[in-house]
Write a structure and sequence with these properties.
This protein has 138 residues and is an alpha/beta fold. It has 6 helices and 5 strands; from the N terminus they run E-E-E-H-H-E-H-E-H-H-H. Helix 3 links the parallel strand 4 and strand 5. The chain is globular.
């Protein structure tokens, strides 16, 4: 399961059991995920993830800035509360790519607002899955 953690919203994406295909799942208020609210627990119960992959907004040079540090700390708290292992994925430009994809599909700014985060999560989860599959084939 992937999380695109923002200040207001958390985009959630999931992979198939074979870990080959990522799909957008939902967007939840960040406060509900951080506090372990019923909506977040329901997602965990329904999908039973074995791992959380959280996006880190690295700088263009690949460094962790203040925002990446804040997200990493939030991700560690969430993973710890869920009892799940945590990995990070580079999420640079995933939101911009998600916006472009939605715009190409005919969405306007207002209608894409709630979808961007889960699409971005599915994009960086797919990249993580692809790189993980390549490493396992070696």
């Amino acid at each position: 399961m992937a999380l695109d953690i923002g200040e207001k919203r958390v985009g959630v994406a999931i992979s198939d059991p074979a870990m080959r295909v990522a799909s957008p799942l939902c967007v939840l208020p960040a406060a509900e995920v951080a506090s372990g609210a019923k909506s977040w627990r329901r997602v965990l119960d329904d999908w039973e993830p074995e791992l959380l992959v959280c996006g880190l907004p690295l700088t263009l040079s690949g460094e962790r800035g203040p925002q990446a540090q804040r997200i990493a700390e939030a991700a560690e708290r969430i993973a710890s509360a869920c009892g799940l292992p945590l990995e990070f994925a580079d999420e640079r430009l995933s939101s911009a790519e998600a916006k472009r994809s939605l715009r190409d599909s005919g969405y306007d700014e207002a209608s894409m607002r709630g979808k961007i985060d889960m699409i971005a999560a599915s994009l960086f989860l797919q990249s993580w899955l692809d790189s993980h599959e390549t490493q396992q084939e070696r």
